[in-house]
Amino acid sequence: MTSPRGWFIACILCLAVQTAQAQDRVTYLPDGAAKPITAIGDVVDFTGAELQLKGANSIQRIPAARVQQIETQYQPEHLQGRSLLEQGDTSAAITTLRKALEKEPRAWVDREILSLIVKADLRQQDLSGALRDFQSIITTDPESRAWGIAPLIWSPQVVSDSVRKDMQSWLEGNRRAEQLLAASILLLDPAQGEAAERRLMALTRDTHPILSAYSKAQLWRLDLTNRQVSDVSLERWRDLIERLPQELRPGPQYLLSRGHEVRGELQASAEEALWLPYVYAENELLAARALLDAGESLNRSGFTAESQTLYRELVARYPWSRDAALAKSRITGTQ
């Protein structure tokens, strides 16, 4: 039988172990420093604006852009779901990640899990699910670091009537982030396109830097549709992209590549497109599409061998994508 003193010591040791396990390690670059440092504590929250780290006596606020790495403990289902997604088992990944979401008590980790689910939704061409899950992210973090994988329309995409109907209510609502998502989806809609364009024009003046920049970039799609892309346009587009954080560049970068394509500048189009799979690869759908487009541009320019290499890479890296099926047909010569 354990003595009262032994029970007390055991409890203290157990508490110490739990406390040690709960400690997070955050590596970040302090303002004006040449090398990063690591701080230890409990991450209270991590948004697109800042990370809050609770220490022994206070809460330290670290700008999100300066955070380089977080070491923390994750639910087993979180790790398993991420692994399943990497292996290409998308359905199982979604099921496992939703279980992790039920167990995870930390809001900032919930958003990380949701960002993985959004990627999985998009893999399955579930635009409605992606919009719903992304909405859950931006409800608590409007400046989310996940905007780079948001279900916005950058490349050609089929939109169901039910999604269009849902987006009409979002467009008319008062939540600006939802307005951007809705305007993106409805921009080329025959019935709602003009209202969507007006909403994007208004959002270009928004004080929220992501909403403003992405609204400007979404309007580029009209220039592409009208095939009116000037040298000044391309210079302005490139300037906006260079001012964006890297994780937010995939969509605008893709449109830049299409700008060169409509001008008949095929090699330049391929060069700009290849930034996505090799540098801005977090947005998988766009990275896959960019590989296909780059292959097409190079093939039309007479670089057949190079285009075949890109088609094979697309099939190998993104076998689940619609673009992989098109790439296979290009490799086999059936189209």
UniProtKB/TrEMBL annotation:
Keywords: Signal
InterPro entries reported in the protein's UniProt record: TPR-like_helical_dom_sf, TPR_rpt
SUPFAM superfamilies membership: TPR-like
Highest rank taxon of the organism: Bacteria
Membrane-spanning residues: none
Leader sequence segment: 1-22
UniProt keyword Signal, yes or no: yes
A Pfam family of this chain: TPR_6
Protein name per its UniProtKB record: Tetratricopeptide repeat-containing protein
